[in-house]
Design a protein that fits this description.
Shape: globular
Low-confidence stretches: 10-16, 100-110
Structural class: alpha+beta
Strand content: 25-35%
Distance between the termini: 30 Å
Radius of gyration: 15 Å
Number of strands: 6
Strand order of the largest sheet: 1-2-3-4-6-5
Length: 143
Amino acid sequence: MTMFVTDTALTGSPFSQCRHQAVLTLPAREAHVSAARHLAADLLACWSVPESERDSAVLIVDELAANAAQYGREHMTLLLVLDHGTLHIVVTDSGTTVEHRHRDVAPDERGRGTGIVTCLAESTEVHQTRSGREVRARLRCTG
């Protein structure tokens, strides 16, 4: 497991806001999803993100990390950046293309994760890279 956390004062900002950033790299295993979720919850509380927005962000982290654990082969990385009232959540994994749901799985048992993320986030993007997949979600934070 690798983790980096930084806080940098933004020079020239009329509000003297602080830019917060954290990176966590974990094995792409379902057992590690809770670590990503708990880190996000703790950091966002330390960064004074309001509780309702923090809850939405933690749910997004949980869904994206669960997808990365399911489809990533080796590792997954969570990047959180809070900058000028916007929280950027980026989860990358070492997986290839998104696998489709098996027919023997009930429709209400899987597949809600990306829908939840899309509903909660201001915007989302998915990119396939050479080394895997990257999913970005952006949330406005009023605090």
